[in-house]
Amino acid sequence: MSITHSLTTSLSSSSSAFLAPSSFNSRGQVSLPVKSVSICKCVATPEAETAYKTGVTRNPNMGKLQAGYLFPEIARRRSAHLLKYPDAKVISLGIGDTTEPIPEVITDAMSKRSHALSTIEGYSGYGAEQGEKPLRRALASTFYSDLGIEEDDIFVSDGAKCDISRLQIVFGSNVKMAVQDPSYPAYVDSSVIMGQTGLYQKDVEKFANIEYMRCNPENGFFPDLSSISRPDIIFFCSPNNPTGAAATREQLTQLVQFAKDNGSIVIHDSAYAMYISGDNPRSIFEIPGAKEVAIETSSFSKYAGFTGVRLGWTVVPKQLLFSDGFPVAKDFNRIVCTCFNGASNISQAGGLACLSPDGLKAMRDVIGFYKENTDIIMETFDSLGFKVYGGKDAPYVWVHFPGRSSWDVFAEILEKTHVVTTPGSGFGPGGEGFIRVSAFGHRENVLEACRRFKQLYK
Amino acid sequence: MSITHSLTTSLSSSSSAFLAPSSFNSRGQVSLPVKSVSICKCVATPEAETAYKTGVTRNPNMGKLQAGYLFPEIARRRSAHLLKYPDAKVISLGIGDTTEPIPEVITDAMSKRSHALSTIEGYSGYGAEQGEKPLRRALASTFYSDLGIEEDDIFVSDGAKCDISRLQIVFGSNVKMAVQDPSYPAYVDSSVIMGQTGLYQKDVEKFANIEYMRCNPENGFFPDLSSISRPDIIFFCSPNNPTGAAATREQLTQLVQFAKDNGSIVIHDSAYAMYISGDNPRSIFEIPGAKEVAIETSSFSKYAGFTGVRLGWTVVPKQLLFSDGFPVAKDFNRIVCTCFNGASNISQAGGLACLSPDGLKAMRDVIGFYKENTDIIMETFDSLGFKVYGGKDAPYVWVHFPGRSSWDVFAEILEKTHVVTTPGSGFGPGGEGFIRVSAFGHRENVLEACRRFKQLYK
């Protein structure tokens, strides 16, 4: 690279000051010198000054982004830590990556489909961009039975994150968005990239022209909607990443009513719905009238360990209309056909197996395992006197460290226990003072991490 | 759906008049009445008039799009034809979909990876968004050895079409694009969607603010660059889809020089490079200086039959800089991390097997088979007195029907021979008067289609 960035590796920087990754290979690969560099220097080499530059102006929206995408940044810090402590047994309860093997009933189906592609009868090329019909049908009957969602309302994807970005392309730059604060960073970042926002306001740690709907212990992690000025699009994740809070039926009903009153569209991210223990709604379409105001995006990632296999889906009901009466689903379909070519047929075979009776049972077992991890983590922090939230309906535990910087706590935990967590402020200013601890991990690692937490905070 | 569109199914409409698909399930599913409807009617049902509408304004860029994406539209017409002639043996030489089984050396690797995901040792979750290191390394050494492209310049994707769209997100709305005319429709459509263009100009069948670089027999299918006003981004596909023409070394050198003179960036789509028979460059990076002005996108789809498996890659050299010196690769990496989560790990295992010595041999055998098909199709049309282009370096044959509408010829061939082709004007106004015949097909189908062509045009 012709411009050399020597980046700080200080782990005590605050969230808004954390820096763009210096390497493209952010996950698991570090290509920069790490030791004892503690000041940010941008050094232009002699070639850089004479290097050929095209005449193409950089997209100003890209320039608005403040930092590397959160999880690669955490991976970078993890790698830097490993360089500093090469013998440390680092445990990752950070990125929210699944760790348990995929049940065989599911991998058998993917293996079979792979082999079938070598036969004349079993070979298939381009599939429907919207997904294979049997999978769409199985999704409709498994998750939306009696909710009035039909199989042609369901678009199969390579994951919820990818569909969030495709939804942003559908809406374009002239919409105003609202997000829970804290929330999954892809909502805000994709909004910035699409040009929906103003500049980043350093003083409040927010982008201009986004409504940040504060969710905290005081309001039961459900925003005070009366204080929100009208948004076009509301990203709402329930059970929530990172707080672990699932909205109640009353709260979701309020949200749907708010959307209707304001003519807004809710994008309901239900990627953790199968982790719900009690009676809270698993789908926003359980709320009457939601089909006219809501989209729902979901994923096999955290149900079947498909974080690497890549499979998700998005429901865009045909009843959802733009202000001119044009169906949103028609534009989403156009984007799916133009910017995407369908999920891998092998992954789709796996998805179909997930929804068989044996597959569903196997998925529930894996989810049950992670929920036991959640209990262990919650009990640990609880026993240490921390206020602990989430956990019950989600694989995330949201631990309060009042008055402290999240990145400081993240760094302290990493330095002293070799456990990677996620700093709450990485999810927005409303996450400051919290740490998200993920329950995805082998049991012995979760137990060991909890032992170390008890050492550190006893 | 609350608005009922009864769409014309006349097969004689001209390219610019072809209509948006009436069904979301465009491939292989038709949900509209087809018989004897020949006038376009938009009938609002009573519910439609009273249906709830959100207050969200439809993205005006979506409204600019003139028609359904080309290939779903063709699939729709194919389905309509099947409804009309339920007993016809329809042969598809249209959409460019691979038909031959994937060699076992490749599916074995995918099957093995699937099974490994069921084991503690073999399980993996999120991979690097940019792709697995061994695959990036193998791509670099297989296709870019001695060209100065390094493995960290290569981003693995779920296909070239998806990366084209991600590249458009990187560039944003304030760039001016140039495309070969005719060309693969995703370039123009994604440009419209991103807001880079003006409205569609019906008289010339072009969008405003795109440079259409005419490629025809007269100029040897290489544009007259002296007539092009400065574009920011030049999409250049070689070997070309649909014309089948591969640029020579001199032509690509001219293109690189043109980009350098104008400060433009070339996006070189090399998805058919392995079909090149002679000495034409397989990669734009064979041209000195190209790393400072070019991106290259490619795919396993047409090499290994991965149209359904989904795997491709894009090379963004670190030497490629925006006008302010910021590396394009850094912004592309940010998009890959924020809007994508990596290609399926199972597909990547298949990709790695493709690049093993046995895999490469197997891919070359499949490509050789399709190239024999190409010869058969070329000889057929040649023997019937047509001017035939392409074929030598690409799996597409570009047949000239001077003075005739492409959609008329498409409809005539479908109606009289039950063979699906692709109308040239679907690729841009420069394709008018041509038909693209794809060489992807089982041998007996290609031979049978050619027999029928000989019947029709004897």
Automatic annotation (TrEMBL), chains A, B:
| SUPFAM superfamilies per the UniProt record, alphabetical | PLP-dependent transferases (SSF53383)
Q: One GO BP annotation here?
A: systemic acquired resistance, salicylic acid mediated signaling pathway
Protein origin, superkingdom: Eukaryota
Record-level Gene Ontology MF annotations: L,L-diaminopimelate aminotransferase activity; pyridoxal phosphate binding
Report keywords, A-Z. Aminotransferase, Pyridoxal phosphate, Transferase
Top-tier EC class: transferase
Q: What's the Enzyme Commission number for this chain? A: 2.6.1.83
What this protein needs as a cofactor is: pyridoxal 5'-phosphate
Q: Which InterPro entries match?
A: Aminotransferase_I/II_large, DapL/ALD1, PyrdxlP-dep_Trfase, PyrdxlP-dep_Trfase_major, PyrdxlP-dep_Trfase_small
Annotated Aminotransferase class I/classII large domain residues:
89-453
Database matches in HAMAP family: DapL_aminotrans_1
Q: Which family does it belong to?
A: Belongs to the class-I pyridoxal-phosphate-dependent aminotransferase family. LL-diaminopimelate aminotransferase subfamily.
User: What protein does this entry describe?
Assistant: LL-diaminopimelate aminotransferase, chloroplastic
Species this chain originates from: Glycine soja
The root-end lineage is:
Eukaryota, Viridiplantae, Streptophyta, Embryophyta, Tracheophyta
